[in-house]
Amino acid sequence: MCSFKPHQHHAILPHLAKRSLLSLCIGSALWASTGFAQDTSAPDATDSPRALEHIVVTAEKVAGSVQDTGMVVSSYAAEDLLAGGVDDIGGIVALTPNVQLLDATGGGVPVVFVRGVGLADFRVNNSPAAAFYVDDVYKPSVAMMASSFFDLERIEVLKGPQGGLYGRNANAGALQVISAKANLYGTEGYLDLGVGRFGKTELEGAVNVLLSDDMAVRFSGRRVISDATYMRSIQDGTSQHHGAEDQWASRAQLYWEPSTDLDLTLKISTGADRSETTLLRSIGLWEGGDADGDGFADGALSGQVCAALLAGQRDDSQCATITGQTNSELGLNGPFDTASAPINQLNNEWLAATLTVNYQVNHDTTVSSITHIESFDHARPTDWDAVAGVYQDFYYRTDISSFSQEVRLAYDAQNWRFFGGVNFAKDSLDEDTKVFGDLGLIPMGFGHHRVNQAYAQDVQAFAVFGRVNYPLSEQLELITELRYTNEEKSFAGQTYLVNPVGGTGAEEPVLLVDATQPDARFDDISGKLTLNYKLNRDVLTYASLSRGFKSGGFPGGLVLDSSGAEEYDSETITAYEVGFKSDLLERRLRVNAAAFYYDYRNLQGSARVPAVGGVTLDRFQNIGDAEVYGFDAELTYLLTDDWLLQASVGHAEGEITDSLASQLSPLTGEEFSLQGHELNYKPDFSANVSVRRDYELANGYSGHVELGYDWRSKQNFTYLGNLAEQTIFSEDSYGLLNLQVRVQHRNSPWQFSAFVTNLTDQRYRTNARADDLGGAFEIYGAPRIWGVKANYQF
Fold first, then answer.
1. What φ, ψ does residue 307 adopt, rounded to 5°?
2. Beta-strand (E) ranges in 561-684?
């Protein structure tokens, strides 16, 4: 519950006015960075017409209205996310056009694409192209993005390169998770209980307690459990449901304000996630049969692609999986039936501490320090072959430790502002991955039943950055951002063969390759130049030129020769963007739009290359240059005091324009150039539309009903070389209908809500790809999911 108490210094901008704090508290909208409420600027707010709010964001590291921010920012308030059952990155992505999610193996390594730019890799030693921040702390691994959200203030999605303030690995944009802060307002908090489909139970809550006039603590936590869900593993005629959730997280904050010039916040967070993840579903590729009984399809050995696929049709009764059996013969009748062994599961644990210090030197100058240390243990068994029998079962285990220190200076003069600082970070990652294969190409190609890969990667990064806001006139403002980044990486690893075919199991491991590489260094200067022009109080136009970069590194995939771990270089984007933001019709209509063009150099991605033992693997590398262009647009219209219409659309075209890299077809083996191919995981168009109806009931009750539609156009999951690949590795357009209902009493601290996602039970796929050893798999999105919640504020 929002309480408006005496001013507490903001962690970033101590001079934030009480009116801005009020806006932060009431600024909430589920679908975009907008909301609607009584316009309190009128003398009598009770009788005045409702108007769209100005939402306060910190996308530019200082608090400001989203309508005065010269970039595309979507902001989502905690109250609406909680009531709508949105508790992870996937839920945020579904609300945001031109943003796409890839979770390549079904769970645990979410990767975000923004405007067609993202990390087409699920290796945990790689950093996302869309930087992920929690309370101004950067998360260096995609595995650290899988945690659920709780006790939030808001979440912000920034589109476009953020190379100035956010720095390395913000080539696509940035996602900011802003937690609710401990405060000196007294005892307050909430408790939220939810139940839903498949026996899901959620309990979330927080309490803020005032210890003294200058000290407070805030405790918050979340617990989620469920039964097995819609996935079903079919093995030898028996079936077992899969997908049970089991996660918890907690956070403790101590806030101390010993003087009006100094405040300190110590935050400690911990948690674990042992949820079962999505099972992969096999795709038939080959002519059927297993004549020699070795458990390997005859068509896969001879390269005979299923005739139906070659004709551009998918036929699960004719096309065989790697086992030689079709999906129909395996008993897979529905999209959530799979022959995978039910081993897919997360085993994540983390512990982190952050100390934030703000010191107001004088009325104009504030110095801040953010110190963070974190330990994150990640484990994830995955049946990668998606069929019965052990062809390639991966057991990933990774220990990640990170430390970062950032010192900031904010100076606010009468006619210009400066914000800048220095950042130092150090990350260490140790991985021990085991691949088991009793059947198929692992024993055939290597003469062993197990491949072990172990490596250690260390990263040390330093950056200095600054931003200056300078008004050229009353209407025109120039904003400059500049950042220098130095990053050094080391990689040492080995691949071993274990348990030879026909052996006793007691043999010593055989070293296949020592993949240790020379240390690598990546330097870059990135930044942004923006011109903001205010036509009037309600209309902003802007133009920006920015440069972002994602640092290079070392592939973390299975390494079968030393070249497989060789360094790849940084990628960069030079971005051009123009846009406008407007509030019209006495702030009842909001129209925002932006157009962009990216010059994308040294694009990082996976290309298929020949490897050892006849096995073909994807290797992460620089695959060439590309161009990306498109637009973002959103409209919010308060039709009446009770009806709100919101619509947003994104368009992104992306193509590799210059490339020497080639790809080998996983089906036909033919080689084709990547030049001219469309970028992956990028619908050309995506859109969100929602209609909300607020209502007043008898006896003091009120509430709202909201209906939303999320639509994505056709997209490719890989680079396509022929008609057969196009048939199985691309997904047609689809749309999801979502519903939310909320009710409360004006004199009660209780609020009740219900939601349904995918109301029409639409079937759609989120990924499909080859598995590198003769098979292929696909992942279907969730069916209809419902939940009800009760929220108590105090």
1. -60, -35
2. 571-584, 589-610, 616-638, 643-658, 662-664, 671-673
What does the H/E/C string look like for 357-379?
Answer: EEEECCCCEEEEEEEEEEEEEEE
How many beta carbons lie within 10 A of that of residue 434, not counting itself? Answer: 17
pLDDT of residue 22: 33
CA distance 727 to 315: 11
**Amino acid identity, residue 548?**
G
- 550 by Cβ neighbours in 10 Å (0-12 / 13-18 / 19+) ranks as buried
Pairing state between β 319-320 and 671-673: unpaired
Q: How far apart are CA 255 and CA 216, in angstroms?
A: 5
Alpha-carbon distance 743 to 736, whole Å? 24
- Per-residue pLDDT of 411-452, as tens digits, reads 998 889 999 999 999 999 999 999 999 998 899 889 999 999
The 10 Å CB-count burial string (b at 16+, else e) for 268-300 is ebbbbbebbbbbbbbbbbbbbebeeeebbbbbb
- The answer to whether the beta carbons of residues 104 and 769 sit under 8 Å apart is yes
Burial class of residue 86 (count of CB atoms within 10 Å of its CB; 0-12, 13-18, 19+)? buried
Residues in the chain: 794
Q: How far apart are CA 405 and CA 664, in angstroms?
A: 44
Look up residue 444 and give its amino acid. M
249, β-bridge pairs: 222, 271
CA angle in degrees (0–180, nearest 5) for 155-19-40: 100
Q: In whole angstroms, what is the distance from residue 18 CA to residue 36 CA?
A: 19
Q: Which amino acid is at 604?
A: Q
pLDDT of residue 32: 37
**Distance between CA atoms of residues 559 and 491, nearest Å:** 12
Residue 544: both structure tokens together:
């920006």
pLDDT beneath 50: ranges in the chain: 1-46, 611-612
The H or E element that residue 686 is part of is strand 685-696
pLDDT tens digit sequence for 605-635: 987 655 445 555 678 899 999 999 999 999 9
Tokens linked to 626: 């590309």
- In the block, tokens 């299923």 appear at 306
The residue written with tokens 């139970």 in the block is 201
SS3 541: strand
Straight-line distance from the first to the last Cα atom of the chain, in angstroms, rounded to the nearest whole number: 7
* Residue 509 DSSP symbol: P
Q: Strands, DSSP E only, in 50-172?
A: 50-52, 56-57, 64-65, 73-77, 99-102, 111-114, 130-134, 137-138, 152-159
Question: CA 557, 443, 288, 781 torsion: positive or negative?
Answer: negative
Report CA torsion sign: 139, 201, 334, 324. Answer: positive
Q: How far apart are CA 451 and CA 536, in angstroms?
A: 65
Residue 15 CA to residue 6 CA, distance in Å, equals 13
| CA distance to 214, 549, 688, per residue, from 117 (Å) | 45, 11, 20
Nearest to 176 by CA among 193, 190, 159, 192: 159
